[in-house]
Amino acid sequence: MAKARILLVEDEGIVALEIKNRLLKMGYEIAETVSRGEDAYEAAQKTFPDLILMDIKLKGEVDGIEAAVRVRGKLDIPVIFLTAYSSDELRDRALKTCPSGYIIKPFKETELNILIKLALQKHVKEKKLMEMADQLHDSVQLSRADLAEADKRLKDQVEQGKQRELVIERNYEIQKIISKVLRASLEPITIKEHLQRTLEMILSVSWLALEKKGSIFLTAEGEQELEMVAEQGLGGHLTEACARVPFGYCLCGRAALTRKLIFADCIDDRHDVRFDGMSPHGHYCVPIIYEDKVQGVVNMYVRHGHKRDERTDDFLHAVADALAGIIERRRVQRRLRYMALYDNLTGIPNRTMFFDRLGQSIALAKRNNRMLALLYLDLDKFKRINDTLGHDAGDELLKETARRLTSCLRESDTAARMGGDEFTVILTEVTNEKDAAAVAGKIIETLQAPVELKGYLCPIGTSIGISIYPTSATEAGALIKKADMAMYAAKTSGRGNYQFYSGEEVTFGLLVDYAVKFVMFNGGEWDHNKWLDLLLDLQRRGFELSDADMTSIGLVLESLKPLRNSAIGNQNAMSLLNLSATVFIQNNSGVWNNRQWMDFRRDLAASGVNLNDETAYMVSCFLESLKELYCSFQNAEA
């Protein structure tokens, strides 16, 4: 990993040299050192460092705050203020520039190092969030463009229809029917309802020599087959025989295959559908075509021996053209709705639909005074399969998981993919926790069966967390969070099981206990990834951590490092020290005097933990860091 490059702005040469040496010792690279605020922007623009350490009081007309304003105004570089001055007026001016940190000289090397790392991490996360926002914006714009293009095509189709209407203006009723068809398309009705209404409009035209019966077909999605979606005046034999018509079969299928109007004045050899007692008749079969794509067929009956006329041809073509644009727009809208609400890979509801259904389910449960269960699960061995067999195998595994998951549920329940290998299930109308446990057990059993991927039988499993409305929580966000916490508990207890949310209380003592266990478990050494894992673990256990909390936790961990490696660094002594220190901080509200400190040492000695001068200093540093964490935690609780 490349070293972070830092621009140092400090007008005191000796101080600048000392800070530079400290930074180099900490593993950073110095992009440049300048002493005047006027030179800060030019140096930042020239070297473009990862971070700027800026002294506030500088020689010259431009101080560090004004220099930071110039830099942040044009360059996306985080700034940390260094100053030996801490007046309210100076601090308020500095904070208005939204710095990434503020530290008072003299400072500890550890404090500066943590502050720099947090600033760099925060800056990277902000850039990623901006990139995600840009991608989301592009996706939304693309979706809007698709819909706008469909609307444009519909308008073009309407315009073409109007031109055709001008050619046949000898009949004003044609224009009325087309207008009614288009207006109906804007109403909140289904495409089947719209086509049924259109069919009725066509048959109501008095001058058309049509029988009072007919039908409209739509092309089945992805198939060379027509499906009857609207009909009037047809008997049971015809609706059954013509429910689905392959392209090329009978008159309607031939119209779809040839993309041309088919006319018959009688029952001839092209009539593949026949039955005893069929009355003599003829047909107009008009294909509905949009950009060379056959979307359906309008099928109208005429009396036996009817003579084909141009006016009827033009009218039915006009209706078919109008329907083509309407059907295409409906399909685009349906596709966009599907993309917005369903997971593109697995076909089950995505996060958006999940949150909508969860809100509806909670409202229904509240109105009917019923329970509901929320299951949060992920796959126990997904990453291993993804890494060894590739992402395509991982995708197949996710699709198979979705299929198995939905097979375990009722129609009233909802399975959704939250992202990655995480899924959720909403169980409605559960009567008790046993119902949820039974479904969770069934899911675990179903997903335990190996999946064949690329010729390998891959064992897989899942861990499930369960929260219950209203006992666990009454709000959607809280239910999700608590189900996620329960899932994490299931994972830590051995995987392949389910856990209900237990309601573990979030306390200062519990937070310190996790920090001590983290240091002991890692032998006093950890990297950035383990630090992030700790923060994620704490959040999943219900701790709402501010930036100040995370900084304070980092200081606690640093103060525990030397203790872990000292003479009292064994498990029993550290556990006792943790408990005693937590009680000491809480009882004294983070403030103590020398007498209380000596009493604390005597209590430890009485418990078997004797502190020499070296370990006593380490413990005092630990208490000081706990004091900072306690104050931060109390402020967050307030």
Describe it for me?
By secondary structure, the protein is an alpha/beta fold. The protein folds into 4 domains: 5-107, Rossmann fold; 153-338, Beta-Lactamase (2-Layer Sandwich); 351-500, 2-Layer Sandwich (Alpha-Beta Plaits); 508-637, no CATH class. It has 21 helices and 18 strands. The strands form 4 sheets. The chain has a 6-stranded antiparallel sheet with strand order 8-7-6-11-10-9. The chain has a 5-stranded parallel sheet with strand order 2-1-3-4-5, sandwiched between helices. Strands 13-14-12-17-18 form a 5-stranded mixed sheet, sandwiched between helices. The two termini are 40 Å apart.
In the sheet with the most strands, the strands line up as 8-7-6-11-10-9
Question: Judging from the principal axes of the Cα atoms, what is the shape?
Answer: elongated
Poorly predicted regions are none
Helix content: 55-70%
Could you give a short account of the major beta sheet?
6 strands, antiparallel
Number of strands: 18
Separate helix tally? 21
Q: How does CATH name the architecture of the largest domain?
A: 2-Layer Sandwich
Q: What class would the helix/strand composition place it in?
A: alpha/beta
The CATH H-level superfamily of the largest domain is GAF domain
> Which CATH first-tier class of the largest domain would you pick?
Alpha Beta
Whole-angstrom Rg: 36 Å
Q: Estimate the strand proportion.
A: 15-25%
The count of domains is 4
- What is the fold-level CATH name, i.e. the topology of the largest domain? Beta-Lactamase
User: What integer is the average pLDDT?
Assistant: 85
The N- and C-terminal alpha carbons lie at a distance of: 40 Å
